[in-house]
Amino acid sequence: MSPDNDRIGLVLRVSGWEILVADHDRGDHLCQLRGKVKAGPRRVGGQVVAGDRVDWRPTDPGRGIIEAIRPRRNFISRVASGPRGVQQVMVANVDRFFIVVAARQPALRPGFVDRALVIAASGGIEGVVICINKIDLDALRERDQVISLYRDLGYEVIATSAMTGAGMPALIERFHEGLSVLVGPSGGGKSSILNAVEPELGLRTQELMRHHDRGRHTTTSSSLHRLSEGGYVADTPGVKQLQPWGIPVDELVSYFPEMAALTGACQFRDCSHLHEPGCRIREAVEDGRIGASRYDSFERIHGETTAGNLQEADRRS
Ligand SMILES: Nc1nc2c(ncn2[C@@H]2O[C@H](COP(=O)(O)OP(=O)(O)OP(=O)(O)O)[C@@H](O)[C@H]2O)c(=O)[nH]1
Ligand SMILES: [Mg+2]
Ligand SMILES: [Zn+2]
Question: Residue 224 belongs to what domain range?
Answer without folding.
Answer: 79-235
